[in-house]
Amino acid sequence: LTVLGLGVAVTAVVALVGVSHGFENSLSELYNQRGVDIVVQRSGGSQRVNSGIDASFGKELVKLPGVERVDGGLMDVISFPEYGQFTVLINGWAPDAAMFNEIKVRSGDRLHEGDNHKAMLGHVLAANIDKKVGDKVELYAEEFEVIGIFESFNVYENGSVIVLLEELQRLTDRPGKVTGFLIHAQPGSDDAQLQSLARQIEAMAPDVSAKRTKEFIESVQQIQLSRAMAWVVSGIALMIGSVGMLNTMVMSVYERIKEIGVLRAIGWRKSRVVAMVLLESLVLSIGGAVVGIICAVLLIRFLGSYPLTANLVQGKIAPHVLLQGFLIALFVGVGGAAYPAWWSANLVPREALLKK
């Protein structure tokens, strides 16, 4: 029971922290795979998908020394409640956007200039809402024709919709606006040059924020919230696991008081008694860690393939998160056995043998 209890706690830690890390890793992958060096968005907004910058600002950015390419786009969140899809990203890209070259068209065609009321669906989303090329999909109470099913290297895009930038600007009533710009610096630019470029961009418009990719990802409110919630819930689970371990080891020692008294009487040192209790606790901890890690891996794989979560969860856990869960289990084992080990080691042999 102690192993199972600790296994549940480890499952909670590994799964929740793994999902949180997966969010951050997926977002990081989205920018790093495309060679994005700086992300430009309106400053101060908590919900950055709903913020906007004039699309014309991109023409000024591309003129800056050290800038190789500027990609702008609009983003929003929609839902398909009838299919259980409540958080679906919709991207508005210009017809000549470089991002179109970074996705693979599985069937149909990509969007071109003038493709109004037409959309592309990520293959995960297409499967979840049972749509194929030629079908109609409702976006913002308007019918759009699905002209292509695509596959991206990123889990978020595989569960998203792509329409032309002008169409999304019209649908969201944000004419001439983009969510932000992705800056590709000249090859070979070092950190100092990128920081200098970011400061130049912010000096051009006081209401604009320009951040290095890593800094931007760490500042995303949703990721900060998911990370905090993961550790809060994990902390509660670990507290319950620790109490279970403490209870088990206290009862284990209490039921063997006479046995421990005999061991002390025949010459066992205090350190040897402590080692015996701690070893028992560590064996339980390792068992709980193995059970918890296996359950967490299976749970994350399930979430990665389940339609309701497949567009958000990668379906894999980073090795360092698994190691974290294992080390936490060992810490809980040692922590839960510390007091019983100390108490048993300090039993007076005569009094222990007389205990009823």
* Helical coverage, percent range: 40-55%
Give the low-confidence spans. Answer: none
- Major beta sheet, specifics? 10 strands, mixed
What series of H and E elements makes up the topology? Answer: HEEHEEEEHEEHEHEEHEHHHHHH
Backbone shape? elongated
Euclidean distance between termini CA atoms? 27 Å
Query: Could you tell me the strand content as a percent range?
Result: 15-25%
Tell how many strands the DSSP assignment holds: 12
Output the radius of gyration.
28 Å
Individual helix count: 12
Brief write-up:
This protein has twelve helices and twelve strands. The chain has helices at residues 2-32, 57-61, 123-128, 155-158, 165-171, 191-204, 213-219, 221-254, 257-265, 270-305, 319-345, 349-354; strands spanning 38-42, 53-54, 67-80, 85-93, 104-108, 118-122, 136-139, 142-151, 161-164, 177-178, 180-185, 208-212. β3 and β4 (85-93) form a beta hairpin.
Give a description of the structure:
With 356 residues, the chain is of the alpha+beta class. It has 12 helices and 12 strands. The protein has helices at 2-32, 57-61, 123-128, 155-158, 165-171, 191-204, 213-219, 221-254, 257-265, 270-305, 319-345, 349-354; strands at 38-42, 53-54, 67-80, 85-93, 104-108, 118-122, 136-139, 142-151, 161-164, 177-178, 180-185, 208-212. Strands 1, 3, 4, 5, 6, 7, 8, 9, 11 and 12 form a 10-stranded mixed β-sheet that branches. Strands 2-10 form a two-stranded antiparallel sheet. Helix 1 packs antiparallel against helix 11. 36% of the residues are buried.
